[in-house]
Amino acid sequence: MTTSHEILRLLDLEEIRAVQLRYATGTDSRDWELFRTCFTDEVDVDFSAGFGQPAVRLDADDWVAMTAPRMESFAATQHMITNHVITFDDDDHATGVAYVRASHHLPNSTGDSDQTVYGYYTNRFERTPDGWRIAALRLTARWMTGNFGIFQAALAG
């Protein structure tokens, strides 16, 4: 027999998956208000694996303000987040690991117009009064294909 706790846990799992999908959708649609709904007020961001950027803790509004112009420098992006594995530390904290394939498109005169990152996110989630949110975001890039120069231009922007 299914208990109410098990049903609530299933709802939590679905909400956490939905946060990851809002993250991708907000990025690719350039809907920065939607993107902001993914995070707690402060967020730990670690993109050091593959990008050499140091891990930082910042105000989520600042993270959105930094991300928006980088992603908007591409003609298009597509982030696919799959294979969600979510474990709960307690009723209000969870860790989610999910595969990502992030494609970036920018026609240019220096080579390939595309660059793709393959890897996974390891995110820490917290239950807030507004629902589950990402408290820590870590991207582990396993490999990349295409013209990394277009991504470097976005990082410099």
TrEMBL record:
Gene that encodes the chain: mmyY
One Pfam entry name: SnoaL_4
Signal peptide: none
Gene source species: Promicromonospora citrea
Entry protein name: SnoaL-like domain-containing protein
Superkingdom, taxonomy of origin: Bacteria
Residue ranges annotated for the SnoaL-like domain, each copy included: 9-138
Entry-linked InterPro entries: NTF2-like_dom_sf, SnoaL-like
UniProt lineage: Bacteria, Bacillati, Actinomycetota, Actinomycetes, Micrococcales
